[in-house]
Structures are given as structure tokens and as C-alpha cells.
Amino acid sequence: MIDRAALLGGVPMKALSLIMLTFQNSALILIMHYSRIMPLVNGHRYFTSTSVFLNEVIKLGISATMALYDLSSNMPPNTPATSMITELVSTMFANDSWKLAVPAALYTLQNSLQYVAVSNLDPSTFQVTYQLKILTTAIFSVIMLGRRLTVKRWCSLGLLMLGVAIVQLPQDTAKAAIQGTKTEAKVGRRAVEMIGTYAANAIMARSGSYEGIKEDKVEEHPEMNRSVGLMAVLIACALSGLAGVCFEKVLKQSPPTQKPVSLWIRNCQLSFWSLFPAFFIGVLWVDGEKISKAGFFAGYNFVVWTAIMFQAGGGIIVALVINYADNIAKNFATSISIIVSAMASAYFFDFEITITYLIGTSVVMGATYLYSQPDYVPPPTQIAEYEETAIGRASEENESARPLMMQPLRKESVESERPGSPTEDERQQFLKRGD
């Protein structure tokens, strides 16, 4: 049983996990977005395929550490570390763990598309639109798991779509151009401070020839394509819903005799199987040629590492929320993070909070809250004891007041379907009256 009243340093774990989730959701999107538009690091921008791969490596290390901690609590104190590692490996690859390769690949592709989306959308718009994963998860659960949704939940999903559509309404072109100019100027002012003289000289030297001029300009001043970002976030939402339902289906189809697996073991399995598509498809196939020329860690700095660590730590925070909070509290934290992201985007990235954005965001948060509410089941009707007694007494009085022909027959008569025979006492009384 989960102890939801657990404390850490005098702070309830439920409140602490929700605060961490709110901060992580807000900061992750902001840092990821800035890492894709910030000035070049030594003339390079980092490859998203390498960050996705490192994210899975770090998550595997964290999940394995937590899984070993759980195993050690169920083993004798003097158990060797090699025995615990052997037990961890055997548990990870036992039975049908290979089935998690499908949701793991879907999660990997989803993470890659998130980088494409945050590169082409402002953080607040991305975060609001990304709530469509609730819709895709519900649809796939109905199709693949046969789950039934109430009318209230279908209405909330419709409101969710309406809210996202309002947020995506086109803005004034002139205002968008001014906003893009301000963002470019702000990035330009920070360029001298962050990349230094060496990177500037390298860019100028390469730009002296025709070859590479266009690529350098795109790298140095990336332009956001709203259509590409919207398409990427929609596909990411679909993959998120499909991966979550596939993961749930694998868990439900596990043999009933199989030994229960902890949450950390499941995270280890997902991260392990995610390494293969992240490395072979992303690092080698997609960016292999560029990485061989520039290097695996080209374009990395503390901002990129911070984004990777925040993304890897998100799994731990979600696990804490699952253990110590509930789904309603989780959605509340998500709503707060949307507000924080909008305010931070307005301050750091010159994002203009319009009336359409406010209306659409309010509709999305309301729909999310409505969807997370449990379905109302009316309690059974209960009659107080004194009411039962009074009703029973009234029934007996009405029964005795009925005419003879309307009173029910005796049990013996009903069972035998004929008048009952006189008893011995009735026979003696009849004889006395005869005397």
C-alpha cells in the first residue's frame, strides 16, 4: 500500500512531487526551445539524435540504480553486488520483456519529434497543443483495449480539440514579423557573449566562399516554421497515445503466473529497448555522416546538457507523482506549468499573449480537468432503521385490517393448494362445544 502521507524533510511527498513536476514541465520546454535557437557553440548546433540517445542512456542508469535499491531491500544485508546485478539483469530480460521493444521505439520517435516541434513553435503553444495526447490516448484505448468512455469524457475531449484549435488561430502577420525581428536581435546580442571570438572567426572564414554560406546563415539564425512544428507535435501526440496503450496492453497480456515487476524494472526495459532505434536509426542512419565530420558532442554546452538531464529526470518525477499523488493533481500541475511557460515565453522569447491564446488555453485546461474527474455513481438508497420499523409496523396494521377474503392464506394452505387440516387443539375445542 502506498503511503501518500510520507514526508521528506518535513514536506509531504505529494506536494513535493507535484512541485517538481510543475517545475520540470515548465523548465524542460523552455530550455529545449532555447537550445535550438541559441547561438552556435564553436560553429555547430548539436544533433538532436545524440541528445535523444544520451537521454535514454541516462534514464537507463537512473532506473537501474533505483531498481537495485529496491532489490537490495528484499535481500539479506550481506548480499554481494554481483548477485544483485545478476538478479536485475535476469528480471529485465525475463519472459516477454522483448514485447516492450514496440512501445520503446514509438517513445523514441516521439522524443525526436518533440525536438522538431520545439524548434518551430514557441514553448507555450507547444505545451498547450501537446495536451492532445490525452485525446489520442483515449482513442487508442477505445480501439485497442475496448475501453468505453462516458458522454462526459467525450464532451471533454471535444472541448480539448476546440481549445487547441483556438490557440492555433493565425496571428497578425505584422505582429509576427516584429516578434521574429525582436527574437533575432535578442539572439544576436547574446551571440558575442556565448560563442566568443573563436566561433565568430570560424563562421566568417567559412562565409568568405560561396560554399556553406546558406547553411551557416540557417544554423546561426534558425527560422521557425509553424506548419512544420504543428505537424510534428500532432504526430508526437499520436505516437504518445499509441505507445502508452501498447505498453498497457503488454502489461495486461502478461501471464498471470508471472512474477510482478516493479515500475523501475519496466523503466529499465523501456530505456534498454529504446537504445537500439535511438542509436542505429537516429545517430547512425539520420545524422551519421554529419556526426562523423563534426563529432558526437559537437554543439554541446551546459544548456544542452541541462535539457537532456531535465528530460531524463522526468521519468523519475512522473513515478513519484504516480506513487504519492493522483491523476487530478497531476493535471493540475500540468495546468500550472502551462501558465508558467506562457509567462516565461513572454519574458524571454517576446511571446505575445493574445486573447485567442487565453481563451484557447482556458478551454484546454478546463477540458483536462473535466476529463480527469471520476465518473459519478449515485449511492444506493438506504432507509434508516426507524423508517424500516415504522414501515413494517404500518404493513402489519394494514394486513390485520384487511377483510377476511383479502388476507393471505396460511403457509400450509399455500403450499398444499387446499385448506389446512384442523389441529389437535382445534379438534378438542370443537368436541367441548359439542358437549
TrEMBL record:
Domain of life assignment: Eukaryota
Entry keyword Cell membrane? no
Membrane topology term reads: Multi-pass membrane protein
Sorted alphabetically, the keyword list is: Membrane, Sugar transport, Transmembrane, Transmembrane helix, Transport
- Location, primary (coarse class): membrane
List the transmembrane segments: 15-34, 153-170, 228-247, 268-286, 298-325, 332-349, 355-372
Concerning NCBIfam families, the annotation shows:
nst
The segments labelled Disordered in the record are 390-435
Name of protein? Nucleotide-sugar transporter
Q: A single Pfam family, by name? A: Nuc_sug_transp
Q: State if Protein biosynthesis is listed as a keyword.
A: no
Task: Give me the stretches of Basic and acidic residues compositional bias.
Answer: 409-435
Note the SUPFAM superfamilies from the entry: Multidrug resistance efflux transporter EmrE
GO CC annotation terms, alphabetical: Golgi membrane
Name the Gene Ontology molecular function terms of this record: pyrimidine nucleotide-sugar transmembrane transporter activity
Q: Where in the cell is it found?
A: Membrane
